[in-house]
Amino acid sequence: MVVGELAYERDLLIIGGGPGGYNAAIRAAQLGKSVTLIEREQLGGVCLNKGCIPSKVFTHAADKLYSYQKNEQLGIECDTLTFNYSKLEKYKNKIVDQLRQGVEALCQSNQIELLMGNAFFLSENKIGVEKDEQYEIYQFKNAIIATGCSPKSNKLFSKLDSKKVLNHWSISTVREVPDRLIIYGSDYITLEMAMSFRAFGSTVSILLDDGKEEFPFDPAINRELERILKKKKIAIFKGVIKEVKEDGSAVMIDVVRKESVKTIIGSYLFVSNHYIPNTKELGLERIGIQIDQDGFIVTNEKCQTSVNHIYAVGDVTGGEQLAIKAIKEGKVASEAISGIPSEIDITNIPTIVRAVPPIASVGLTENEAIESGYEISTGQFSLNGNGFATLIDKKEGLIKVIIDKKSQLILGVHIIGEGAVELISTGIHALEMIAREEDLLFPLYPHPSINEGLLEAIEALSGLSIHTAQRKKSKEIAQF
């Protein structure tokens, strides 16, 4: 292919149209920049097309199925309940298409130039864009890399039939509800898929990854989560993998724990993957952009790379593989390019799990707070004491608050139960504003609502929660 010498001049070039890329593009356009956004597949990136949105369609359907089972007590009666997985798949595709079209419309309304193709650096101020037989060169003042990541295969399962092994991208495209589904992992997607496919009719087994003994949440959340999983008849296995094999249509995993061997059998295996950055074809070596030992692009608090006029945002920079991080970084990068003193700080980034019920947390867990040297107090409130949770029959879960005894500063908020994702914003604001116990005690909370559970968790720090039954003192304590 003959490379032309003509280079089209552009102000800001963004490589990658996922959450980080398109948010960066729109923010830059809002700030008066002329923006060109390059995407090789589909706008919205993995989050919209293969990850976040498809998985949340599944968890939404699962929640509806679980809720339907309780409708009769409300007078909502139906003789039979059927679940059509193919219709759910069509609905998922419809939602994804609708949201992608929305992103395209936003880009158009902000006069963002969209280019489809593979982009790679030719020099510190030139990018080549290739699509089919077409090749063009663009010269730029600034660039943002937002190319994301791809799932990294796990060597433990390399000998299995690839059609039986699902990852973050393929789990939402499986064409049938697995009869028996093994899920290997402990992160948010592990729990979302476990509860979704259990609701759809699969027999589900979770094998915690890397020999872990618990999920990565606060101990109180972990205890409640395991209770809920067992109630839903989702088996939990803890241990180290001894052998992985396949027999016809079945996947079998032998797990060793405390000298005991158990075999897990499934028709499909979902593996919660690690990720590798999508940088291989970018030509970063040509321009000397610094990467870490795992290949992720190194950036500063402004999302600036080692080449000052080139920025990088989202999963390609490592750390938490979350859309909220990419979105914030995209905005910060565009603001920094536009001369605004903006920077990223993900200290108080929340953990969100759209399971049934959902989980949300921010800040330090009890163990982390103690390990950090804090002398702590904890307040906990069970949602079975909340009036609104009782009314809607979603009483499973709890809210836990952790504070520093000395300063009364809020250190962490952890929630499992209805409304957790929405309510955690209060916890995020509390940590960002360096709030104390009194700052969350003082406001009025809407009644009836799940919000009152947070107030009662704060009150529980001093033993003043109204809707918590007080424990009877033992005779020894009473006599003392």
TrEMBL record:
Keywords: Disulfide bond, FAD, Flavoprotein, NAD, Nucleotide-binding, Oxidoreductase, Redox-active center
PROSITE patterns, sorted: PYRIDINE_REDOX_1 (PS00076)
GO molecular function term, any single one: flavin adenine dinucleotide binding
Gene3D superfamilies per the UniProt record, alphabetical: 3.30.390.30, FAD/NAD(P)-binding domain (3.50.50.60)
Swiss-Prot/TrEMBL catalytic activity: N(6)-[(R)-dihydrolipoyl]-L-lysyl-[protein] + NAD(+) = N(6)-[(R)-lipoyl]-L-lysyl-[protein] + NADH + H(+)
SUPFAM superfamilies: FAD/NAD(P)-binding domain (SSF51905), FAD/NAD-linked reductases, dimerisation (C-terminal) domain (SSF55424)
The keyword Disulfide bond appears for this protein: yes
InterPro entries: Class-I_Pyr_Nuc-Dis_Oxidored (IPR050151), FAD/NAD-bd_sf (IPR036188), FAD/NAD-binding_dom (IPR023753), FAD/NAD-linked_Rdtase_dimer_sf (IPR016156), Lipoamide_DH (IPR006258), Pyr_nuc-diS_OxRdtase (IPR001100), Pyr_nucl-diS_OxRdtase_dimer (IPR004099), Pyr_OxRdtase_I_AS (IPR012999)
EC number per UniProt: 1.8.1.4
GO biological process, one term: 2-oxoglutarate metabolic process
Ranges where the Pyridine nucleotide-disulphide oxidoreductase dimerisation domain occurs: 349-457
Any Pfam family the entry gives: Pyr_redox_dim
EC category: oxidoreductase
Annotated active site: H447
Residues engaged in binding NAD(+): G185, S186, D187, Y188, I189, T190, L191, E192
Cofactor binding notes: Binds 1 FAD per subunit.
Miscellaneous comment in the UniProt entry for this protein: The active site is a redox-active disulfide bond.
Family, as annotated: Belongs to the class-I pyridine nucleotide-disulfide oxidoreductase family.
Designated name of the protein: Dihydrolipoyl dehydrogenase
Species, as recorded: Fredinandcohnia quinoae
Name of the encoding gene: lpdA
